[in-house]
Amino acid sequence: MHCHFRSTNPFRSQPAKCYDFHMKMTNSTSVLDRLVGPLGECLTPESAQRLLALKADRKLQARVDTLAERCNKGLLTPEERAEYGDYVSFGTFVAILKSKARRLLANAQGD
To answer: What is the 8-class DSSP label of residue 10?
Structure first.
């Protein structure tokens, strides 16, 4: 089974053969969405635009890409799996918050 992390920022989409990892992310995504909800309500149009411009630096992106590739090949050490899990959790958090920022900006344009 492949799990896919689908976020353009700060990490790119990388398929991974990590069934247990996917299951953990599926369960925690709804929890993250509930936690991010109140934070999304604090966004202003200016802060939403700044959030949408947020990207990982090259060094971080290269590390995530390396871990994703190793995950795809089933080569992650336990330490790397934990590190990659942290990156994916953070990326999911940012993706949800960016979704709320896009919604805020779309609603602001509709007013």
So the answer is: S
pLDDT tens column, 21-48: 554 555 666 777 788 888 888 999 999 9
Break the chain into its structural domains and give their ranges.
3-110
Are the beta carbons of 45 and 54 closer than 8 angstroms? Answer: no
Distance CA 95, CA 13 (A): 12
Coil, strand or helix at 31? helix
**Cα angle at 65 between 26 and 87, to 5 degrees?**
45
Q: Would you say 11 and 88 are in contact if contact means Cβ atoms under 8 Å apart?
A: yes
Its pTM stands at: 0.69
